[in-house]
Amino acid sequence: MTDEEAYAEICRRDFGRLCRFLCFRGASWEDALDAAQEAYLQLHKKFAEVVKPEAWLRTTALRELRNCQGRERKEADGINAMGQFAHRFHIDHLSDATQLVLKAVRRLPQQQREIMALVIDGFTPKEIGEILNISPNAVSGSLYQARLRLRRLLAPDFPDLNQGERQ
Amino acid sequence: MTDTDQVTETLDGLLARAGEEVLAAIGIAVADISVVCAGAVATAGAIVGSSSDPQDQHPALSDAGRTGAEHSGRRPTASIDFWPATQIFLRLAPTATIYVDVYDGAEPILVIDTGTTEVQISPPTEQITPSDLALAEAFLAAAIEYRAAIEVLCKAGIARGECAPPGEGGPVGAW
After folding, report:
1. Which residues on A lie below 8 Å from B23 (Cβ)?
2. How distant is the Cα of A128 from the closest Cα of chain B, in angstroms?
3. The three-state (H, E, C) secondary structure of chain A, written as one string
4. What is the spatial distance between Cα A154 and Cα B11, in angstroms, rounded to a whole number?
5. 3-state secondary structure of B3
6. Three-state SS for B114?
7. What ipTM was estimated for this complex?
8. What is the pTM of this model?
9. B41 vs chain A: nearest CA distance in angstroms?
10. Is A4 exposed, middle or buried (0-12, 13-18, 19+ CB in 10 A)?
11. Contact B14 A120 (CB under 8 A)
């Protein structure tokens, strides 16, 4: 497989997943698409040098989001961001449960949100540590806290998540 | 299974299902954008609109998308009306002649042609401002810079379509 074929295969397989990761991370739909495209453009230029393209794309796309002043401010407005996101994503295609989960993940503190978004994306704690440049132990600790917080946020709508609390 | 295990399983299940649903929704959203952009390409001259007023770029772009969609008989959606769609459009049309029109009201006052890489003022007018020219040149530079990646994205199926040869523009074939 040539580099170009390999790049095309990653585009086909991973573009949507990268957008999803960015959306769970808290980006608006526009910002997610923009950052994903920019990451892919950069990957195209450096493809021969990149060993783990999927991880590299996420690191690069996160940097795109973080470096752009004003985008972070959009994220602070959770309700508007969610509304905009929902509009772009054709909200009728998302179940109520998914909307609640998405909203809860987007309310986590930034590092927990990024870790959870990467978990949903299928990365292991070791890979997440490499992408975010933190230790696997720090990933595990943040992931534990994120799961606790998600349980609390989602428990009112999903009673099964209260079971541990009753003991 | 303990309560804790069950809670973990419930949370994991919720996250997994949400992830799958969002991924599916993204696929639909990206497909919609592709259709509209393809429609825009299929109009004579392959028009992408952009206002001369930076505050008004999105609606102008949306208009161009709708016009293209209507001319091509494809379903217009609102997905076009944001800035990154311009980049998507450029990626959809790596070799096409793309006219980027800078509008003043309803009339285009400046056109760049990425097929010939020329910036044209059409018609010549005193309404052209330095910011118009800067905008047009930025579009042109972006189109040229992205061309290599565009071709790959087209082949990958993220972008799709066949484009008119440089300098010809006009309606294009099987989208």
Report:
1. 16-17, 20
2. 17
3. CCHHHHHHHHHHHHHHHHHHHHHHHCCCHHHHHHHHHHHHHHHHHHHHHCCCHHHHHHHHHHHHHHHCCCHHHHHHCHHHHHHHHHHHCCHHHCCHHHHHHHHHHHCCCHHHHHHHHHHHCCCCHHHHHHHHCCCHHHHHHHHHHHHHHHHHHHCCCCHHHHHHHHC
4. 9
5. helix
6. coil
7. 0.83
8. 0.59
9. 20
10. middle
11. no
Q: Residue A84: what residue type?
A: Q
User: Which pair of structure tokens corresponds to residue B137?
Assistant: 């040149």
Edge-to-edge, what's the strand order for the sheet holding B99-104? B47-51, B99-104, B107-113, B118-120
Q: What is the pLDDT of residue B133?
A: 55
pLDDT averaged per 10 residues, chain B (length 175)? 75 92 72 35 30 32 41 31 32 35 39 45 48 53 46 43 33 24
Quote the tokens at residue A39: 């990451």
